[in-house]
């Protein structure tokens, strides 16, 4: 019965959360239907999934549900960072509910009552049941544990029995998703010829001689590009420069730190406490009341006694020292002899943290507010920062759901300003982030789609210059009177080099050249001793001569290679949802998840609210 007790105790947390699921769903529906409760009926949408509008209230109900489950299972409310994670879980749950469930309905994917029983206590036990009913001593699952627990439910409270039913129902989405994924994974057919291609790719090898001229051998000064050429290249290669929506900004920080007056106040307090501790009749009571250390009365032995107390008599109080931003000092309260050669030292520890006074906080805010009010635009922001000797920091490519900016972890208020109120050149009001006041200026924005030229200027300029360098090198090589690679390299002069390399068909790099998959593919198309014309690869121009190649003979069984092709198609697993209620996550192959979300045409506007 001990195991059943453990399981009941574990289930207690989950079942309360399960009841809360039902309550939140019922109350949430009532709230949505009763606009007066929400105040005037205004309930803005926070997004759209598969054609279904997601209201702010609907989203918040899901967040509240998961937050409650978190509190039940951990015994505390979530911290800010955990709340951010819960919001992501809530959004994923809504995607599952709206995007995936529509797929399930259209395909007729269901889980019957008989199937659910089989998942809990039959021949195809759910992984969640296996995890939950693992023996706490051995970690092994035994079906008898499930049977014993279910048998004990007859004597359990009605609330617990109903909650177990709710927990069972929470297993259904996992099985539906498994069936949906299996429709693709089990019918993902790889032909013999596809498997053979993979076999050849992994086992074919070649040896070449090459002559190579890297682009770096031609100075940038020898080629010039115009903005029109850069824009033309960007227009012709849009697929290479797709970007998510982002914002750039610069910002200055006003640290909230103790002033010299604050520090002197603490120093005076410490001196008073030092004297008071020396005169205290009950050391443990004194430090328990006055010390900022959570464990102020400590027992040491001779090996770990603080250096300031070594060799001192009972009643000695050490001089205050600053340790990790706080004053610390000790009083040797008592020495106990526990053996002939063993002593225990009872020590009272005083710790006083530095603090920032309201006057200091107000003064730092006044400085930040004056800066923000005086900087009407980006140009004034930069000029004023320079005049005041403030360090201007840069944060680029900030996404709409970002939580941190630079080294600032909880900087959501800045991101909300960037996306809801700011425009290029605008300066923010003062934002309080941790122990800092921050003033920011938006410097640029990148809408979703093709990157702005300024965002990718360096990349595009490098590619355009390399194209021109390739034309120059190929033209020079074409005018040489040379018939072999060595004489071609010598005639070309400085920058050219020759070499020999071995590689397989699936390779994408050549030793001494770098990334050059087109050269590898072309090499396998050559006959032995055949040589190519000069052509461009990623970092230079190359001429290839095939010395030898080996194409593997056919084999009878390509099944291992067919499995590899199948796995490559599906990609790695992606987490669809994460539910704290039942301690499990839902996964499908990433490419399936990507396809479902793409067809769901998801619009995520959470950044407008959180």
TrEMBL record:
The keyword ATP-binding does not apply. One of its GO terms (molecular function) is isomerase activity. Pfam families: SurA_N_2. It comes from the Bacteria. One of its GO terms (cellular component) is plasma membrane. It is found in: Cell membrane. Its main location: membrane. Residues 443-473 form a coiled coil. Keywords: Cell membrane, Chaperone, Coiled coil, Isomerase, Membrane, Transmembrane, Transmembrane helix. The chain crosses the membrane at residues 12-33. PANTHER family: PEPTIDYL-PROLYL CIS-TRANS ISOMERASE D, PERIPLASMIC CHAPERONE PPID. This is Peptidyl-prolyl cis-trans isomerase D. The lineage of its organism: Bacteria, Pseudomonadati, Bacteroidota, Cytophagia, Cytophagales.
